[in-house]
Amino acid sequence: MELREKKQKNCLTEEDKTVGYGDQWDHVAIDVPSRFVVSMVTDRRTPEALKAMVSDFAQKTGYKPPRLVTTDDCAAYEPVLLECYGQPVEVRRRKDGELDQRFRSQKVWPDDSVYATVKKTFACNEVVETRQKLALGSPEVLRQALASSPSSNSINTAFVERQNGTDRTHNSRKARKAPTFSKNLLLHLAVSCWVMFCYNFHFINTGLDELVGFDELRHRRILHHRTPAMAKGLAEHPWSVAEILFTPLLHAPSLSTITPDYFRPSPQGHKAP
């Protein structure tokens, strides 16, 4: 979360909300094994923003539910995930074969996937208690997902929090209690997308280093350094800034028509087949 122009408590008018003053949250979906940021939506903490992020992630991954989904304890996640990945159940029918109007169609969570949450309790700016909760799915599938995970054997949000800390380091507009906060919403979104793309394709992630050998002469390991995009198989080497800048876009926008909505996926445009 970062500040925009005014503190949230000082945004009292509808105009402040329309312009984009106050809190702006980064809603991030990350692939844990590769640390690759698949989707990011920077907006207010609303169900609409969560829906846009989840829908964008689902579209990019072919609407296949992940084996394990973990988030914080925000109550808006569960209905959004259920709407996106849930499987519709047959509506009950009367003896004459007609639909029973007393029952509405609903969706159930897939059997081979689980969704869990992490709730942290703070006191004096420190975490004093952490609670994990299985929100959707069965305990047996959760145990299997954690046992087969190459990254962690517990329910946590540590990886996305680590990415958030890295993002703050690379983007001074998001530094806490600093005068470098954004004054223009469009520039803020543009810089956020630029830093996110550099995180995926440009910066080396030491947590993704591969051991390729051992140097007997120098008595040290030989490592293959990778970016998240390399770990995901989307790049063969860390991209330079020049490569990022001059890689042609499939749908290059006109500079005169770019608005904040250009950097935000629309939830209405992403529907499961």
Give the number of DSSP strands.
Answer: 10
> How far is the first residue's CA from the last residue's CA?
33 Å
Q: Describe the largest sheet.
A: 3 strands, antiparallel
Question: What gyration radius follows from the Cα positions, in whole Å?
Answer: 22 Å
Mean pLDDT: 83
**Order of strands across the biggest sheet?**
1-2-3
As residue ranges, the low-confidence spans are 269-273
Query: What structural class should be given to the helix and strand makeup?
Result: alpha+beta
Approximate helicity band: 25-40%
Specify the number of helices: 8
Number of domains: 1
Note the beta-strand portion.
15-25%
**N-to-C order of helices and strands:** EHEEHEHEEEEHHHEEHH
Shape: globular
Mind sketching the topology for me?
Blueprint: E1 2-4, H1 14-19, E2 22-31, E3 36-43, H2 47-60, E4 68-72, H3 77-85, E5 87-88, E6 107-108, E7 114-123, E8 126-136, H4 139-148, H5 158-170, H6 185-201, E9 210-215, E10 220-224, H7 228-232, H8 241-246
Parallel strand pairs: 4-7
Antiparallel strand pairs: 1-2, 2-3, 5-6, 7-8, 9-10
Helix pairs in contact: 2-3
